[in-house]
Amino acid sequence: MKMEGCEYTYPGNTRPTITGISVRCSLSSRVALLGPNGAGKSTLIKLLVGETIPDKGKGVTWKHPGCRFAYVAQHAFHHIESHMDKTANEYIRWRYAGGDDKEEIEKDTTKDTPEDLANQKASFKYEWKDIDSGKVYSAIRTVSSLLGPRESNKATRDMEYKVCWKGMSEDQGTFVAGHILKKQGWAKHVLKIDEKEAAKASLYVRPLTARNVEEHLNDVGLAPEYGSHFRLSALSGGQKVKVVLAASRWNQPHIIILDEPTNYLDRESLGALSNAIEVFEGGVVMITHNNEFCSALCPETWILERGADHIARIETKGDADWMAQKESEMVNSEKIDTIVDASGNETKLESVVKLDRKEIKRLQKELKAAIKAGNDDLVGELEDRLAEA
């Protein structure tokens, strides 16, 4: 995830809150975002995750199409305040039922602007190659809608999305490169498809059962008694924060963004959270005023400070070699003794597979190809290998 040259001005203000912001984070990031109250730290994070968009013509944001992230806002309780009559277990199963995260923020980046709608109606020259003859054809067409499926073009290394053409049936739909669709005003629809596909990639890891969710809550320190039998309204502030943290982690995010994660947590819980961040194999960005907590965890810092003009600018510090070193490390799997399927059946694992990132990516590509080809036997085998790794 990255943003380059971004500026943001709140509606009604004459001067921007932040300007010239360029940052990036990856699977190996450990970042502390620091600055005084009101400097624009939460504004920066909202831009990074796509909850808001930069001022027009003043910066761009980007996220890898396969990236899953978890964003725990500063006022963490707003994630659960409408579900106080549910248990934590019921809340997580409601939130992720069907594979989509129902608590996903309604982002400005998902709403079509008048300019987007105008671009979508515009016709453009579409070219395609006949597989048998190799001859290239072209026609002036207009995209009517995106149908959902996508695939990677190995030749161009670009992601392509299946579209329905105006005046043609869905059966006549073809795949069009993502960069072309973005120029034609479909960027936000492409983003929605990317996020749905990224969410699906985590579904085979563990079924959404009451037992699995109970174990997941127990892993963050919320005992089964409180996770499965107490309503959220009866939990303490610290217990509610644990529910929010557990819920954000259910879909196996690659990057976790925490806005003041130390609120409501006691010293023992803070120590456990610190240890969890240390062993987490994804990226972490955190806003916190607890210097003792972040200094031991984050070799990289983003410092926001307001200048004489009251506009916040950023200074980044950190060892660039640290990230390169972490990227090159092997990913060793955690030992798992038992897998529980959707029916509650347990399967004992006799061995543990160790795979590096390249091998995991290769298997994921093979899995997509097998699903597309309808090879159920190979799909099952690949899913098992990825689940073990």
Word description of this protein:
This protein has 13 helices and 16 strands. The protein is an alpha/beta fold and 389 residues long. Strand 9 and strand 10 form a beta hairpin. The protein starts with a strand and ends with a helix. It is globular. About 4% of the residues have low confidence. Helix 2 packs across helix 6 and helix 12 runs antiparallel to helix 13. The strands form 5 sheets. The chain has a 6-stranded mixed sheet with strand order 5-11-12-3-13-14, with helices on both faces. The protein is 34% helix and 23% strand. The longest helix has 17 residues. The protein folds into 3 domains: 234 residues, Rossmann fold, CATH 3.40.50; 86 residues, OB fold (Dihydrolipoamide Acetyltransferase, E2P); 51 residues, no CATH class.
Give the SSE layout:
Layout lengths: L1 E7 L9 E7 L5 E5 L6 H9 L10 E3 L6 E4 L15 H9 L17 H7 L3 E6 L6 E6 L1 E11 L4 E8 L8 E4 H6 L3 H14 L9 H10 L4 H6 L7 H13 L5 E5 L7 H13 L3 E5 L3 H5 L4 E7 L5 E6 L2 H9 L9 E3 L5 E3 L8 H17 L2 H13 L1
Helix pairs in contact: 2-6, 12-13
Strand neighbour order, sheet with most strands: 5-11-12-3-13-14
Task: Please tell me the overall pLDDT.
Answer: 82
Query: Residue ranges: pLDDT <50 for 5 or more in a row?
Result: 330-336, 339-343, 349-353
**What's the story with the biggest beta sheet?**
6 strands, mixed
For the record, the CATH class of the largest domain is Alpha Beta
**H/E series:** EEEHEEHHEEEEEHHHHHEHEHEEHEEHH
Structure classification: alpha/beta
Report the portion of residues in β strands.
15-25%
**CATH superfamily caption of the largest domain:** P-loop containing nucleotide triphosphate hydrolases
Terminal-residue CA separation = 25 Å
Total DSSP E strands: 16
Shape, per Cα inertia axes? globular
Helix content: 25-40%
* CATH topology-level fold name of the largest domain: Rossmann fold
Instruction: Please give the domain count.
Output: 3
Number of helices: 13
CATH architecture of the largest domain: 3-Layer(aba) Sandwich
Gyration radius from CA atoms, angstroms = 23 Å
